Structure prediction request, 763 residues.
Amino acid sequence: MSNASEPSNVVDLSQRLDPRSDRVGALLATVRGLATKRLHALASNMFENIDDALFDLAEKAENNAAQTQFFDGMREVRKKRAIVERTFLGQVARDLADFSAGRMRAPDAETHTRPLANIELSLVGENELEESLAVTSMVGKNEQRLARALFAVNQRLSVICGGNKMDDASNPVGPASLANAFRQALRELLVEVRVKLIIYKLFDRYVLAGIDELYDDINNELAAAGVLPQLRHEIATRRSDAPAPMGPDSTATPVAHGPAAPVTDAAAAEFMQSLHALFSARRGVMPEGAQGVAAGVSSAGVPLPTGPLPSPAELLGALTLLQSQMTVLPASAAQLASQGEIARDVAQLKEQLLVQIGQLRGQQTAHVSGVDEDTIDLVGMLFEFILEDRNLPAEMQVMLARLQIPYLKVALLDRRMFAHKSHPARQLLDALADAAKGWSPEGDRDGRLFDKVKSIVERLLHDFDDDVAIFDRLAAELQEFLDVARKRAELAEQRVAESTRGREKLEQARRRAAQEIVSRTAGANLPPLIYGVLTRAWANYIVLTLLRQGEESAEFNDSLRFIDHFVASARPAHDTNSRRDLRALLPGIERSLRRGLASVAFQEADTEQLLGQLHAFYRQQLGEATPESDSDTLAASVMPLPEAIQAIEEPVVEPEPEDEAEILADEAFDERYLSQARELKVGQWLEFTAEDGTTDRAKLSWVSPISGRFLFVNRRGLKVADHSLAGLAQAFAQGTARVLDSTLLFDRAMDAIVERLRTPETA
Prediction:
């Protein structure tokens, strides 16, 4: 039985420890020691794996530029690993010291106090937004995963710091604090954002995934020291930035101050707040919460609409009724409504929506909440962009524009769509636009792609109510369709490229054979028989040798040596020495001829006939007796040539190609068009305009290493055109060819919308 006078080691939650006491100091030192040791080990393990991960990605990179980014990232991490690790652990230590001294702050505090002007500027900081989304995502995931252990750590640290409230955001060893400390440390690295995002993933995998053991250590140590030893791990209500449930059974109904669904993470909230500021400035209305503006009056002194705002159910119900009126689509592209008609529908949707709500209510409705109006206008501007986007064929613009109502419903349900690239609705629209970019009537003669896009649009119009999961299902279905089509097209592309490569190799070999024969026979007055053998059968043998063995082979060198010997054998032999030299050449000439002629499909009878003519010619050269009847015909003899053999009758040495800049030294265009052509990458899509004004879309499939010509195919992998560098630059200069933007549709649209909102309207 314990002594009643002995002090208890159990600390009740209602009793707070004095943060200045020695006991608290010892407990805090214990927490710091556990955190430092555990985080140092986790960070070291992460850095060991960064090098391997970046190396693997570099080996699998889709192009040289991406590979260079990964290798540069590897070098930068190796060089600055120590300082990044030291900065990260130092920031954690400072956060713990601030906690010990009673200076606690939420990592997101600076975001909430940032001036609106800075928030607006952050819209154009794409890299900063990418990082924010990466940090927000991994913090949210780990706070949810570690909710029970983190709740216990929060409660116990709350006790030892004098009862100050501790939550996930202010916990110095919570996922939010650790992720923000690591983000500050990464500022030391001068790497591409793509590499940074990979490092964030590895931080999530190797550091945050291992901090559950740290929380267990802290909870066990503090419980053993008497800090809330009987604490039950009851999880308090999550912060407002936790993902809200969606769907018909969701209980996350928006509160009365606004009918909009809440924006459910910090990055998306900041993004929407910035857009709201821009929209408000454009309308002449101060943002909600701004000071100095009388309630119900705009900054321009115009009275604002009053009256009850539509509820979320009314908004979605009215949109569903409007959506049901658009479910019937035409059977073919030729029957689609005009762009003007669709553009009018897009522009009038807000007015139609208010009319529909009024009919449901039985009274006129003149306005919606400011946030909902922003959302309606934002979606309207998105689809206006689609209708103006020259990246898309007109038929596909009209088809995709019919999705305005489903996407407005998604936006009202979940505004994260505007800030999150991974949002399923956003990914589906990007995938549809990317597939549509390469569509043309000629390239889709069977209508498969058009029908697939049409079916997806119809199903969204028919089936989408409030279950966003339909976008994931349709995106997977579209991807499966595109994968099958891509494999089919790749086979066709490969055949086209191989056929083109074969023709170019043949033409190159024929030119080389002609050049060699012309250069080695220059100035020689050859009899037609000798000249015919060289320019016909032997030229074809050289071509065949180049194609099979290449110009570095012994066979090719032997074929050139034969030309020299054959030309020498045609010279008159007037003395004993020259006749002796000729007799020495003849056996080798005959052997080479027999072998070469057999290679180019000469029949044995044709070969014997030719050799008979040559024997008679050489007997005449050697001064041996020749029948009088043959003497006049041998000089004019031409060798027999089978029909299967293509003759190189008049070998002409082609001039060396001129410098590209000289070829294009026309005032119609300048060097930038040459550069534009040179910078094209395989896989990029272009639009070509014919003389009659019709257009076709084609992908750069292959650039010939022999001729430098650019081969273009349609989405089925069939050849559309091939151009030289000069010809392609000329097409760019004349406007008959243009490169289609490879940036995702949603990204381009949001950039254009923000730029438009920031540009003052002209009267």
